[in-house]
Amino acid sequence: IDPERNEFQLSRGQLPDLDDEDSIVADLTCIGVVGIEDPVRPEVPAAIRKCQRAGITVRMVTGDNINTARSIALKCGILKPGENYIVLEGKEFNNRVRDPKTNRVRQDLIDQVWPQLRVLARSSPQDKYTLVSGIIDSHMTTRREVVAVTGDGTNDGPALKKADVGFAMGIAGTDVAKEASDIILTDDNFTSIVKAVMWGRNVYDSISKFLQFQLTVNMVAIIVAFVGACFITDSPLKAVQMLWVNLIMDTLASLALATELPTEELLERAPYGRSKPIIGRTMIKNIVGQALYQLAVIFYLLWFGEQILDVESGRGLSEKGINRPTEHFTVIFNTFVMMTLFNEINARKIHGQRNIFSGLMNNILFLIIWVATFFLQVIIVQFGGYAFSTAPLPLEHWLWCLFFGIGSLVWGQEEEEEDEDEEHENMTGAELKNTGQILWIRGLSRLQTQIRVINAFRAGIPSRLDVLHRFGSVNLDRVPGRSASIGVFGRCNASTRGFNPENPAMQ
Asked: Where does the sequence pass through the membrane (predicted)?
């Protein structure tokens, strides 16, 4: 019997006396070997690698034999040769995590086990529940672990209920497991969990993108309206223009930003912590930076725009009883909308990415909404008239508006320099960094070992030279098959490969 491969030997002969243990397996003839294998799905190892790259630790809890479980874990990639992870049976797991006197699970004991535990074999549903509870209640890290559990049996119900996210099998799962779970995998495939992680992160990012865009627009609009009312007794942005920006443009922008499809890049950063605010440090920097740029442009146009554009000033006309639209305020409104439109492209990236156009062509709905909003703005400016408080603008003024709008993209690039949050560290980069550190430490240790070997070898040379001087009649140049190489030892070349100071034959 080979439990690792589920192989059983068939024999033929007279049935022994079952009460006699010594004669049960004796005098039999082997007639064949039957192997039963439950192969790993081809797509599972790749899915587990994606989870590990995304900062997700995959553990296997099974009732199978420990050898079978270890073999499957190696095939899947849960275990890798050379790693210091542990594989336990349920009985040993309970001995490690329970108090010997009270037989109760102690959190300090389970904290010594779960970080290195990767496979738990011969386990019961209670062991699974104990492991899930121990990881959730642990305070070893600054942010609490988020635990997801997969299960299909009735006994898996407590663990599925206790977990932050419970995945039940839709085909093989029982009704109890489905009721206790949060998500049902209709295809019973592990790769669906990877897709769920991608979509979850994508939804979170979509909300953050819209908030970043919306807060920038509202901050600029409120400050412009307040300053205009205080200093020129009139807001450069009229009420109907504010309605267009907030009700129509922002609604379309939210739809455009929320339709971004998930990509593999979402799996290359660490998971979010439970206490992580939805508006992070990078987002605040982007919001404040864009708001400062837009306010600087609008206030410059408000007080000096008529000189640059050679138009009639719109300031103070309301005090004179003149309520007609002016090119001056129309340029301010149009510039604000252009900067908002181009900042919508900036808002697609919230983690400090340099390439804001990455994946832009894959989101057709975003492009359609962006172009449609631009043409609607052209119609409003050129033909809105008194309804939108706008005056038609010549091509030169449109170019100025586009220039300031594109400037928001350039300003956004200046903000994005090396400003990614620590909690969103790129996992691929972190792996490369850790690999480099490991190689450096190994190389340094090897160099130190070689230096110690050379020093030890060098320390024994003087006595040997004294012996050679004492017996000066020996001429090494004339010894057959030898060459005079004393100088090599004197300079201590690093030709010490194969030298073992612990081997008496080498001393």
From this structure: 215-237, 283-305, 325-343, 364-389
